[in-house]
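FW: tagging you since you asked about this chain on Friday. Here's the raw sequence from the shared folder, copied in full. Didn't touch anything.
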Amino acid sequence: MMSMTLIATAEQAPPEIMTAAALIEFAQPEADHIIAYGDDPLQYGELRLPDGEGPFPVVVFMHGGCWMSEYDIAHSRKLTDAFAREGIAVWSLEYRRIGDPGGAWPGTFDDIEAGFAHLSELMGRFALDPNQVILAGHSAGGHLALWMAQRIEEQQSANMIRPRGVLGLAPAPDLEYLFEQGACGNAAGLLMGGSPEEYPERYAYGSVANRIPQSTPQIAIIGKFDETWRPVGVRYANAASGMGAPIKVIDAPEAGHFELIDPDSTTWPLVLGAARELLGGTERVD
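HL: got it, structure written out here
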């Protein structure tokens, strides 16, 4: 996969760029199945299946929201439902976050790993294709998707599902940089329980900037007008490219931060196309 670098721009965002307030109006279609992957009430996933017999390609999705408890899986349902309507099954993970009992370090990371591992059990129950699986996430969820890819690269289990790639939608994988910037109310510091100086071993484990996936293809889609999160995405993309990681960057020309998760936006074809590319060029299965 072609490597590509970006240079951040400082253009003025046009007035029509979507804000977080718009998420309140997002549709929340019900999932086909809500399945626990652990004992905590927040350790569950929403499984969405396309029409047809399958087996279906799968997106394992992690929602964003600065890793904070205020932002749950609800705002991502419009996007995950759109994938299913395009013939791609979705295993969308809820997880313990900052402010939740057991959330932040290390519970958030443990939940993502357990939620992904549970996909192996779903393969035996539903018409899912284990050879067509990708990880995906938006914002903080993009960090978790990339982190999970690196965890999988480190593990040698023959029974573990190996994703074909990672789709990062405005990913925020560099926790040290986010801590320095104090982004989202110092969310990185709250996630990790302190600063990189206080907990270097935590950041070495949890920040993807220190553990860039080297063999898993990655596509990062970054909004041209995403003033807050574009810099960290660009920083990561340049670092990954510089290390020779298989990363492709798509500059979304009409997007801020939230258009990337709105299938009614002009950015949706870029998102769907990137997912299909990582899945191996799959088209809708009916």
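FW: The longest strand covers residues 128-138.
HL: agreed, and The radius of gyration is 17 Å.
FW: great, closing this out.
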